[in-house]
Amino acid sequence: MSDTFHFKGKWINQSILVSELESEMVGVGLVGTGFMGKCHAIAWNAVGTVFPEAGKVRLVHLGEANEEFARRRAAEFGFAKASGDWRAVIDDPEVDVVSLTTPNQFHPEMAIAALKAGKHLWCEKPMAPAFADAEAMAASARRSGKVAVLGYNYIQSPAIRHIGKLLDEQAIGEVNHVRIEMDEDFMADPEALFFWKHEASSGYGALDDFAVHPLSLISVLFGRVARVMCDMAKPYKDRVTADGGRRAVETYDIASVLMRLESGIAATLAVNRSAWGRKGRIALQIFGSKGSILFDQERANELQLYVTSDRPTEQGYRTILIGPQHDPYGAFVPAPGHGLGFNDLKIIECRELLARLAGRPSRMVDFTEGLEIERTVHAMARSFEQQKWIEVR
Amino acid sequence: MSDTFHFKGKWINQSILVSELESEMVGVGLVGTGFMGKCHAIAWNAVGTVFPEAGKVRLVHLGEANEEFARRRAAEFGFAKASGDWRAVIDDPEVDVVSLTTPNQFHPEMAIAALKAGKHLWCEKPMAPAFADAEAMAASARRSGKVAVLGYNYIQSPAIRHIGKLLDEQAIGEVNHVRIEMDEDFMADPEALFFWKHEASSGYGALDDFAVHPLSLISVLFGRVARVMCDMAKPYKDRVTADGGRRAVETYDIASVLMRLESGIAATLAVNRSAWGRKGRIALQIFGSKGSILFDQERANELQLYVTSDRPTEQGYRTILIGPQHDPYGAFVPAPGHGLGFNDLKIIECRELLARLAGRPSRMVDFTEGLEIERTVHAMARSFEQQKWIEVR
Amino acid sequence: MSDTFHFKGKWINQSILVSELESEMVGVGLVGTGFMGKCHAIAWNAVGTVFPEAGKVRLVHLGEANEEFARRRAAEFGFAKASGDWRAVIDDPEVDVVSLTTPNQFHPEMAIAALKAGKHLWCEKPMAPAFADAEAMAASARRSGKVAVLGYNYIQSPAIRHIGKLLDEQAIGEVNHVRIEMDEDFMADPEALFFWKHEASSGYGALDDFAVHPLSLISVLFGRVARVMCDMAKPYKDRVTADGGRRAVETYDIASVLMRLESGIAATLAVNRSAWGRKGRIALQIFGSKGSILFDQERANELQLYVTSDRPTEQGYRTILIGPQHDPYGAFVPAPGHGLGFNDLKIIECRELLARLAGRPSRMVDFTEGLEIERTVHAMARSFEQQKWIEVR
Amino acid sequence: MSDTFHFKGKWINQSILVSELESEMVGVGLVGTGFMGKCHAIAWNAVGTVFPEAGKVRLVHLGEANEEFARRRAAEFGFAKASGDWRAVIDDPEVDVVSLTTPNQFHPEMAIAALKAGKHLWCEKPMAPAFADAEAMAASARRSGKVAVLGYNYIQSPAIRHIGKLLDEQAIGEVNHVRIEMDEDFMADPEALFFWKHEASSGYGALDDFAVHPLSLISVLFGRVARVMCDMAKPYKDRVTADGGRRAVETYDIASVLMRLESGIAATLAVNRSAWGRKGRIALQIFGSKGSILFDQERANELQLYVTSDRPTEQGYRTILIGPQHDPYGAFVPAPGHGLGFNDLKIIECRELLARLAGRPSRMVDFTEGLEIERTVHAMARSFEQQKWIEVR
Predict the structure, then answer these.
(1) What is the 3-state secondary structure (H, E, C) of chain D?
(2) Residue of C nearest to B390 (CA)
(3) Scanning every residue of chain B, which has its alpha carbon at the shortest distance from the alpha carbon of C233?
(4) Which chains share 3+ C-beta pairs under 8 angstroms with C?
(5) What's the pTM?
(6) Domains (ranges, CATH) in chain B?
(7) How large is the average pLDDT for residues A347-356?
């Protein structure tokens, strides 16, 4: 069925003799076309235009829940073939790398199958609801020798990348304290109906839903977490059900965590998915011996820097607007102050993935490091259950 | 030569039987591949994925200064054919619409030729350095019956669109005063060499370089300008030349304008391209009988609204983060607070263009309205020369 | 009558043998006890505690519209004597300096009488509604040889003072452009009744009501204004009267001005007293060859500084919170970031006045410089009437 | 000796026949004249002018470490008598209320003595370094029947007061989560010398130095704390000593606390006195079922309110500038947006104290409630020592 698409495929960044080069292009498969699936599709469509040096890609095969839907999405997203069965995508010999964007509970089976099929994998975060599954995925990735990376897009932000550079060059001296918060309000309405995210089967709550994002930032900026002490809370004890009754909420929308990093830094993490007014806040405060840095994802095109090398009468937080001097903003817009958007982060991530496929240095959270993030999240949950500090490893 | 690309073209949003549908797709030509050329290319590549309902496009033919460069860019941007002669693009029968992104002085000849060749036109702003040329372009567009629109991307911003909605529904009552500023600092360094933007042949200075952007916002939000009183200034009288001498600067980096709109609103406009610290500021202050609205392009994902219907003790500017409820943010990201970037504005603009090509309502500045914007700019310059109020028409 | 208060007066900063020192203390008279009168009273009560080195004062005599009211206020404000006739205050031999805080139209008669009576004068701004009266006041001050200064408190702000220092040391190089705005919303309600500020007899409108404040800042930071081009507008043409009718508004709530300073700086001024949402905004933008400075009175405890000496990747506006290193913040609070309030500005002003009385250097707008400010305002009004640029002198 | 001052005292808010009224005035004694002593003096001098209805006061007697210093300060601050012995102040029969602003370790002895001497007490926070001493002070206050209150000035802020009102009227529904931070950088310099605040004898560190302030806000806004789980950290392990050696730092500049309030609210507290860039930050985030509220003491004249009753497309944090409608701002300035300063908070506190002395309702933290705050701080320290959750009571 999908064969009928074959010669009408869309080649991005094709060079002159496409027929000759086809084998050198990276063949892309996409499984799942929701929020993140579309986000991957936008990235795959844009990466060659924004980053011509990144390499060439072909959008080969798209998989969705049924064939009709798959065909519609393939047409929208520019994929050559469409299938109602995800296995057709990972078995397609023209597919070199699979974008896996299905709901988290499907990740283990699909990811391991794709790796076994010899595909590289770009899997949305988190790896899996159960830690054992995440371990199996990481083991499978190790065995396969394939590239297996996770979609932690915030680490790609030019502002976050620049913060990393500043830390590396000790612009604020030695870091001694970090606070990070992630808050949204999509579950804040107490009148909203009970749904699957309120069931224990969906996980702990904000902890696994959100904390992996801040932890990805901590991972790339400061390294691993050593010990955790976690508290969790429910803003609403129960909720209305579709039939007009009320049902007890089983997950925790709020989590607050004391942490010690392996480097010795004392840190705190706070997440809340019922925080009215917060839309996409990831607020970072980094304190060092010679200054401090602030960042908030809701104003992702700026960062705040305070350094003691400024004259005392003029010390203050600088609001630095990202621009061409902050990698890789200039590939999107050559003028400063024009701003990148959320989808642009995924385009950068896609560039990093292509770099890794080509054996070049890249900045991504792979399955090994991703597993450490999830190990940390599960340690936090255990800490809450046992009401005590837990060593992550 | 460009024929060799023909069957290897890139189809965006193709549907099942591409061969049948090819004639229904919009064939795209791109002339120029600088800052704005790349921006158009990103938009053409993304529009179908972001806005599946917008219609299908084919990236047919790219023109650049020489064939080798054109071929390289075509490969990068995903165009099927490449030519070193822009006339090949506008003469290509497969091209339906031409993206014209060359330097402003080339617009008149190329735009008129494209319209005469029966192509629709998406021309970067401003129309032309000389008003007579802009008039000729508008006349040509009228005669052609083709769609001829300008790349005023800031009017596409979800925040600006929402401001328009708020004004329409009289959320701040009747508007009585408007202030708008546009400032950047790319010419602020007094040690930078004299270059072509310092020559009178490049235009008046910040006035034609910048003012068209704020005027496009005024045009869509408040209508036309009736009278203007303008002052212009040079921050630096002369500049170093490449040979170590100094040359008098002939253009004005600063312009300040008193205005009366046709609606009677008293307004001011200030532009400065030597404003250290400003990167992409377009700051709008709108005062009405029941409230006010603020916007700054450097924080383009938010707007500020003050309304007197709030209880007096809680009146204050609301910082509204744009989200899915602000058209068309949701097509990019389904969650609020994640932010769009500058390039996303061009994708929205591209959607509007496709809507106009399909005869649907759209929000664009066409050549007729664009001519009014340029008429206003030239009236401002005349006002400065004559040191008096000038009626725009 | 007021004699009965004599021995019960309040001495601020008295030293051990008050009776001996009384003659060395500055005797204070206060005429008027409204907004500004209370503000002066707070300053006179606090100045000795906050600035022990400033000198000693005695609160001698308070004048109000009638004796009963005067007595009540004298008791509240700590003045020893009270009179229902302002002449009793300026004739009191124990009074050395008169705080004049009555409505503007009373300033000329009272100020000239006080100067003739040999008193120093601390007069609230502006000097007088009519320029001829202001001229007479300045002439009287010159003849008297007494200290005659105006209550331009914003020039006392530690942030503004520090901006002055930064400009003096060329921290942002040579200033080439300045924009200043002052906006409030106390007249913004279109349903509010017609009152005296809508009558032409009250003056031009926002121009004389507000513009003197920004002009005082321009005066101390950049010097005098050379030429002006002004536009004025009425947000509401008429208003409801107490009897339910409507009456045409005669004053202009909005004024926008193009300016050239004597130093050659191109500047703009915008004032609006019907600007919904603005409460006490005085927003200053200063652009120089090496940086820029921003300030907003609504956040008076901070200023923004951008300098090109910062490394390009970290250039950005620094939000500098005023602290002990910014004169004279430390006299109020020894710790930074705690913030001063509006009344504290008047206490600083009072210290400056005491310094001037003692023959020490001080920072105040005296009647000579104040006259220049009012000359500028009247030139602006003439510019609007004649619709052309006007030379101030 | 101090008698010589007697008839030269300073009467604030005296009314006509001072001699008759003297007995009705509140006689004030001040012990200590450092940062807080001067702050009290400013308040006592200003309270009658700012709040005429508050009652009359006389500045009777000032005590300092030696008589000469006491005399100088008395002259500066306007007190009638001066003594080098604090006991002379509390024994003075003309003194009704004692402002106690000496270093914390002197509080217990002086406070208890003052209460025993039948004086009302306005004691700076915290009560005492040792909890047993604080208990003794509270017991003494209870026995005395006198007013004994603490100088928690931040609870007096018009913004904090308005937040209290908003919470009371359920403007953001039922509160379910609170985060509070207090950060300064006066100990952030790693090169600064070892001093007494680094010694264990000074207390735990930031915990007792700072946490009482946020806890005072929690106390008035949300009630008492039930359980705590605390972590503490040292940014710098050792410091240079005056003799060029290095000495181990014994106190903790950073503390992070998980909390459950008696009301069930889950909260976090973070304090840091080595947080470069923070000058006087007390940042409060309050999340409820219908909105949220933000506050930061560094911008103390504004608060942020988000309510879900706003139309979804216009929901956003409102930046509310405090003004006359926010009690008691209007007593300082009748116009909005002009701003209060830190010292103004103490003037408000002084008004509250006078109200309590007069038996009227007032908003102050008395010794009973203050003891609960200190109990909570000590519970936090115990939690850190034992590495586990601690019940406060």
Answers:
(1) CHHHHHHHCEEECCCCCHHHHHHHCEEEEEECCCHHHHHHHHHHHHHHHHCHHHCCEEEEEEECCCHHHHHHHHHHHCCCEEECCHHHHHHCCCCCEEEECCCHHHHHHHHHHHHHCCCEEEECCCCCCCHHHHHHHHHHHHHHCCCEEECCHHHHCHHHHHHHHHHHCCCCCCEEEEEEEEECCCCCCCCCCCCHHHCHHHCCEHHHHHCHHHHHHHHHHHCCEEEEEEEEECCCCEEECCCCCEEECCCECEEEEEEEECCCCEEEEEEECCCCCCCCEEEEEEEECCEEEEEEHHHCCEEEEEECCCCHHHCCEEEEECCCCCCCHHHHCCCCCCCCCHHHHHHHHHHHHHHHHCCCCCCCEEHHHHHHHHHHHHHHHHHHHHCCCEECC
(2) C387
(3) B266
(4) A, B, D
(5) 0.95
(6) 4-150 (3.40.50.720), 154-336+366-391 (3.30.360.10)
(7) 98
